[in-house]
Predict the structure.
Amino acid sequence: MEILREGQGELIGWHDPDEHRRWVRENKSRELKDKTMTVAEAVEKFVHDGDFIACGGFGHIRVPMSLIYEIIRQGKRNLTMAGKTAVHDIDILIGAGCVNRVEVAYAFGHELRGLSPAGRRAVESGKCKVVAEISNAGYQWRFLAGAMGLPFIPSRNLLGTDTFEKSSAKIVRDPWSGKPICLLPAAYPDVAMFHVPRCDKYGNAQIDGILVEDFELARAARRVLVTTEEIVDEEVIRSKPDQTAIPFFLVDAVCEVPYGAHPTQMPYLYFFDEEHIREWLTVSKTEEGTKAYFDRYVFGVKDFEEYLELVGGVRKLSYLKRVEQLRAPMPVQGGGEE
Amino acid sequence: MEILREGQGELIGWHDPDEHRRWVRENKSRELKDKTMTVAEAVEKFVHDGDFIACGGFGHIRVPMSLIYEIIRQGKRNLTMAGKTAVHDIDILIGAGCVNRVEVAYAFGHELRGLSPAGRRAVESGKCKVVAEISNAGYQWRFLAGAMGLPFIPSRNLLGTDTFEKSSAKIVRDPWSGKPICLLPAAYPDVAMFHVPRCDKYGNAQIDGILVEDFELARAARRVLVTTEEIVDEEVIRSKPDQTAIPFFLVDAVCEVPYGAHPTQMPYLYFFDEEHIREWLTVSKTEEGTKAYFDRYVFGVKDFEEYLELVGGVRKLSYLKRVEQLRAPMPVQGGGEE
Amino acid sequence: MAEIASYTPTELLACVAAHVLEDGKSIFVGTGLPMIASMLAQRTHAPNLLIIFEAGGIGPQVPVLPISVGDSRTFHRAVGASSMHDVMSALQNGYVDYGFLGAAAIDPYGNINTTIIGDWERPKVRLPGSGGANDIGSLCWRTIIMMRQDKRRFANKLPFITTPGYLTGPGAREAAGLPEGTGPYRVITQLGVYGFDETTKRLKLISRHPGVTIEEIQANSEFEIIIPAEVPESTPPTPEEQRILREIDPSGMVIKVR
Amino acid sequence: MAEIASYTPTELLACVAAHVLEDGKSIFVGTGLPMIASMLAQRTHAPNLLIIFEAGGIGPQVPVLPISVGDSRTFHRAVGASSMHDVMSALQNGYVDYGFLGAAAIDPYGNINTTIIGDWERPKVRLPGSGGANDIGSLCWRTIIMMRQDKRRFANKLPFITTPGYLTGPGAREAAGLPEGTGPYRVITQLGVYGFDETTKRLKLISRHPGVTIEEIQANSEFEIIIPAEVPESTPPTPEEQRILREIDPSGMVIKVR
């Protein structure tokens, strides 16, 4: 199997599988123990300057925003982030100066809502560096390889494009068909963060609806932080074990954070807060506006509950619940297309 | 990436992914149409002499027995079967002379219940040929590669053993770590058969509890036959879409067969019929006994309902339900270990 | 020409795109116009169009226009709510007939750039990158591209090929290892509908929108577009289609209210 | 020696195997004795032993002894009911500390045969093959093998290596590409408990069961077993352990009733 071509992007988050196995053996507890802690404790304990981080969910869906705000609050620096259709999270982490390196499948855009002023400004000014390109499926499969404890996984995308040239993938000849095939290197993030509807105190987390790439990401990451709408009794999990997306032995911290995905969407529970997202997209057009945003919503509040009050409290959250459950009309927002 | 070693087992069920894609494009309908039919029709239409077949479930769990009996009834011949912890199904299909080639991860044994007289006799006499060896994870990952439309997938098992030597895998040097790694060729079975608790008439099939390798197998196979405890309204599926393990566009036939896994276990619904399994393991010690078994339970009945009456009818089925639901003690059976 | 005033350019695009889709096929869609075109097709000539979203939604009954391809609307009353791995694997395995893409710029072979303007190391404008576009453009059978056309966007050479079209021409996709028989099928702009020439794999005009001239079409492209002798006009929206579009997007999020 | 009559050989095996397991570790188990030993460990010194089944059951509260590793009892009140792909991936990724295996025959390096007796093409006896054994023996950190010992089963050379032990000796697993730091840890038979010599990776006696002599142990092996100067006796079952065993296997399916 000869190597036909090698992408020139930086290889992010790869480990020799033997080295990763050793890390898992020494650092991941198989014990059913209470892992509940505050968001502040979780970030302090498990997120370090220079880490390679990734969030569960997709775009503006099921994003663990309380952890994102806490990373900003604690002033973490030089983070590399997976741009795996990372949208709101990556935009504000770049805007806050926490993330300065990104491997991009999709970033710097807010889908229908338009491009990200903060993220783009940072990349175009050189403050944030794109270290490699990839696609959504490509990133997903990099995590799958990590979840499987493999050095790489084959795929039939990227071939023939500059996305491949700036990726960390390689092209080889498939020994069976004789055709060129792409090999994607595994990605093992240092920290993966998720927001879920329910989780027990041990970290058995369940997700309703689409999993996006959370199943694979949680299994590939070294540290897994879970925020949950509610901490449920172990009994709830054990009565429906096939709904568990992330079992406890993968999880390092469990934090109860109702509405923890705000302003992003929590399927079945609450809708995007379009008003708040629009506010961010508007104020982040300038450095001053960006700074003022963080002063108000991150540094100006002591925790996520105070933030929720600030963005509209019970009235706003009840409204978002009604919209999500199709009991109130969807708000209008900006045009454009992906 | 140099090839270090090649297994000498026969390559079963592999297709060039481009050839398989073409087959999918031309033969798999994306239309939401009624696919209900009888088991007899499903087998007649979709199982052909010489096919490479595989069953969902595991060992004696969730095995689509009504389809297995029908394959025997219709006298299909020269089938190759995936021995993916295939136990009761493969044993009786070999005993009936339908299957004469097997790629073995686990076969010819009934776990705790002991070895398979019929299967072993056929292999030891040369009537049935083992064409390749593999392991459970290995087979599972061959299906995963098929489900992903890939020619192969890497793995770190098989290495260094005769199981590899008699497999169809290859060993190459991983271009990242420089270490030897196994490449498992994809497996695309001609027919995969499943028994599920609920499915709509279009083929949207849901499974409760462990999926074993059904998710990957259904996506790798060319033809998918589903028998179901009940055909439910589309509404039932759409109200819980994250429980769908096999979406309709993968499925070619839907057959309503209550108790369709008998004498194997249907999780949450009914237990193994140990009495019937023991009968088979006893009578299949001789060719005559084997023949008499099929005369009685397959050729002697007109359909699966008549078979159910013959094995004990309502009383037996109610008992198996009570055992499964832990309302009656488990029957004792033979010793030994896996 | 009195007809022109009776529909907006976006309505026209949505309808033209819907007309391309066949019944009983599967499609990977993004948000915005592609989503609207697919929903329109479902409610008119293609009730059995299977819509799949890259984040895992399969065959939903979409109640209102989703804002994101991962939005809970994309798996509302779906037949499956799965994962990106599952649907991307289905795509790679040949189960997806059509894929809709947007583009910042395109070249004569249908290659697409959505990554940068300027230099990759220090871009003048940083765009979002591939997202699922490279996957869709690589792996679905037929790619449909919807974009704005002008001389800068229909470019001889792209600064970055994010998503493969026919690459350098006939046979190039297969030589690169991309699945056989795939590639861009249609490009739909505010001026017309394009396909690709069988022999050269270069962009070729199929229809021009009502009121658009061949000269306008060529003037809004840096490269030469193949123009057949006979070029029909695109079929304009019917009042019924316009009514359905208002139903699909009542707030005018994409189909701007006139 | 009056003690000998107070427990059966199977009870002894179950207890000896349970003693090997540590609390707070994870284990891949099969049916039969391995399952019983793991449940016994959970109910005695290792309440936090995480049991995983190869068909997808994770951390169940097993109500009665499962008959199969895919049996619904293996995911009864489990924390996860997943898939073979999921748990085999966890195994490959280093999450599984122990794995229990049976064996028809073993060689001095702990390699295992469960495939054939005789010739592969036309075997004298066809055994079930690897099942999950090759995966467990390749990928878990420490393999524990439970088997019957006699001169034919403790063989110099196997007709077929189904599952890797230390292959040809020190460094051979790593050279073959198997995960570093893995391999057989204990072999438990009706006569004693064995480990592997650090330097040679050959079978070495750790303890002999009560009443068993060194001579018996060596006489029941074709190859030479490394015998240290001091060999303690295995700890016999306590009445409490015997009581729990009867609770776990009330019908005597595996722990035959005396």
